[in-house]
Specification:
The chain is of the alpha+beta class. The protein folds into 2 domains: 77 residues; 122 residues, Alpha-Beta Plaits (2-Layer Sandwich), CATH 3.30.70.60. It contains 6 helices and 4 strands.
């Protein structure tokens, strides 16, 4: 079958149109792929810039970390050792501060502290709290508390609750005319029942709490 000139022209036009469409589709696909590659390259550049910025901060962060460790160690030096917050030892320490007063320690107990108060279990600073019930006069109690808060290691009085019980005893009557004014005033000072809450911290560098 012979093809005339008109048919040849039409066939040629169809072929070129097909080629043009194919090239157009190929260019579109290549352009889309190129756009994705450029976007990915931009992401890599941003990540590299962020990483470079962090790397530049490393010396500063190391210096800050060293200063922080030094500050923590300095603060830890004023905290009790772990063996000093064991019940018997801690009570013995507190008892030493009432020796030259007429304070009587009736009860001493360790108070459990919730995780919310104490912080994460891995925290290096661990809080300890004790509740004492004592009997004594207000002047003796003030002297007692001052000695506690001036302890060589960090101790803090968290709470005080005072309940009156009456006069100290019959010391004023027993002293009679032999007592001077200061002795009589001390003898007649009202005795009070006082609840005292004392807390402190130990530094364990993340070790488990031992009580």
């Amino acid at each position: 079958m012979r093809i005339n000139d008109k048919q040849k022209i039409i066939l040629t036009a169809v072929v070129f149109t097909g080629i043009a469409i194919g090239l157009g589709v190929l260019n579109y696909l290549k352009f889309s792929e190129r756009s994705e590659l450029l976007a990915q390259i931009d992401r890599y550049v941003q990540e590299e810039q962020a990483a470079t910025a962090k790397i530049k901060q490393i010396p500063t962060l190391r210096e800050k970390r060293s200063k922080l460790i030094k500050n923590i160690d300095q603060h830890a030096e004023i905290l009790p050792k772990e063996e000093h917050v064991q019940h018997d030892t801690f009570v013995e320490i507190i008892d030493g501060y009432r020796q030259d007063t007429k304070i009587i320690i009736q009860k001493a107990e360790y108070v459990e502290i919730s995780d919310v108060e104490n912080g994460p279990e891995t925290a290096s600073f661990i809080r300890h709290r004790y509740k004492f019930k004592v009997l004594g006069t207000v002047p003796d109690f003030i002297d007692f508390v001052n000695k506690i808060e001036n302890h060589t290691r960090f101790l803090k009085v968290d709470a005080i609750k005072i309940k009156p019980l009456g006069t100290a005893d019959q010391r004023g009557a027993d002293l009679g005319d032999q007592a001077d004014d200061s002795e009589l005033a001390a003898a007649m000072e009202p005795v009070k029942e006082i609840e005292l809450v004392i807390s402190t911290y130990t530094y364990s560098r993340g070790h488990d709490k031992k009580i």
